[in-house]
Amino acid sequence: MNLFPDSAIHQLEFDKIKELLAQHCRSEYAMNRAHELRIHTQKRFIEPELLQTHEYKLIFQNHLYFPDDAVLNLSKELKLLGIESSVLSGEQFLQIKKLAAAIQQIFRWFSPDRKIAYPAMASVIEPTYYEKSIGLIIDEILDEYGIVKDSASEKLGSIRMSLYRKRTELKRVFARIVSKLNKLGYLTDIEESFMNGRKVLAVFAEQKRMVKGILHGESDSRRTSFIEPEETTHLNNEIFSVENEERKEVYVILRKLTTEMRV
C-alpha cells in the first residue's frame, strides 16, 4: 500500500534528483544504483541511509581522508568469476587485486574509535571481512603488468627458456644473413621486418629471385619484397610451435588461478 499519491514522484521531480545524483557518481555501478533509487516510506530503510549520508558528510567537513578514490567497475569480472568454466585474463586479475587493496584500505580506516564515531558507515562492512590472501595468490602467479611469471609453473619456466634460446639463435642466424645480403646490395634501408608473425628480409623487388625463401608480401609501391630466408624457416616454425605451447600453459595456469579465486 502506497502512503503517498502516485503523482508525488513527478511533483517532487524525483527523476531529476536521481539524474543529478548520477552525474556525481564515479562508476557505472554507482550510476545504476542512483537511477534505481525509489521512494521509501519505512523508517527502517530511511534512517540508516540518512545517517550514512550524514556521517560521510562529516568526514569531509572535518577534512578527514576516506579511502574511496580507487573507483573500479568490476561487475563483468566478478560475474565471470562466478561462472564455472570461465578463465580471467591477467589484466582482469590485476583489477581484482586493486579492488582487494582498496577494500583493505577501507577496513583499515575503520579503527575502533572510528567505528564508534561513524557507526552507520561502519555497519556497511560489519557483515563482511577482508581476504588478504587474494593479493598474495595473484602476486605468486602474475607480475605487475599482469603477465604470468616464469615461476608460475615448472613447465612454463622450461618452455620460456626454450623459447629464449630459439629466439636468440634466430637473431644470430638472421644477423648473419642480413650482413651477407647487405654486402651484396640486396636489402633496402629497413633491412628487416615482421610479417604474419615471422621475421622477414626487406629485399629490393628486382633482387627477390636472388634470395631463397618464402615471399610473405610486398610494399604498396611494389619496390620492396618481404622474404623469410630459407635458413630461418625451420627456426621460425619451431618458435611458433613453442609459442603455442606457452599460450596453452598460460591458459592452464590462469584457469587454475580463476578456480582458486572462485573458491
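^ that was protein a. below is b, sequence first then the C-alpha cells
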Amino acid sequence: MQAVIFDMDGVIIDSEPLWRIAERQVFAEVGLELTDADCESTMGMRTDEVIAYWFARSPWRGISPKEVERRLIERMQILISEHGQPMSGLERALAMVRASDLALALASSSSPMLIETVLRTLGLTATFDVVRSAIHEEHGKPHPAVFLATAGELGFPPHECAVIEDSAAGVQAARAAGMRVVAVPPPHLFADPVYDLADVKLHSLGELTLPMLD
C-alpha cells in the first residue's frame, strides 16, 4: 500500500450532527421539514446533489436551488468554526500513517470552502499531500470519480490506495474505485449490510492498525 485517502465528514471531523442541524434549518426556510433520517439518507453526497435530491421530490418556489446550496454551505461554515471537533482517534491515525511514509490524502464530497474551513478549524492545513473535492468531478459519491482523481494526483494506481470512509455512498465509491476500504460507520448503522462491502469495519479510528490498510 502506498497511500491512504481519508474522507472528511464523519472521519476527520464530527460534522454529521452539524450537517443535520444545518440541513433542517436551511430546508425549513423553503418549507421542507426534514427529519434526522431524511438527512441521513443523503449522507456522503455532494451538497449540490443533496439540494437536487430534495428539490426533485418537493420543489419549492421563490429561492433557487443554488441559493439554498449557498445558505447551507454558509451555515455549515459557521457551525464548523464554532463547534467542529476531530473524530475520536484521528490524531493517532494520522500520525501512524505519516510515520509509515505512506502518502496521505483527503477526498471529500464537501465543497472546497468547507474543506478549507475544516482543515483550518482542526489545525490540519499542512497535513495532506493531496486534498480533493468531489465538486470538481462530473459525478459525486457513490461514483468513484473523486477517489480515482485523488489516486491520479497522488501518482499511485487505485489498488495501491486504501480509503477510510464512514458513509454508505463513500464505501461504495471506494469499492468501485478498486481500492481497499476501511469503514468506520456511525454506531447506529454499524450492522447495515452495505458496510460489509468494506475490507475492514471499525467502531472508531482508534482501532485502526497498519496491517488493516495493506
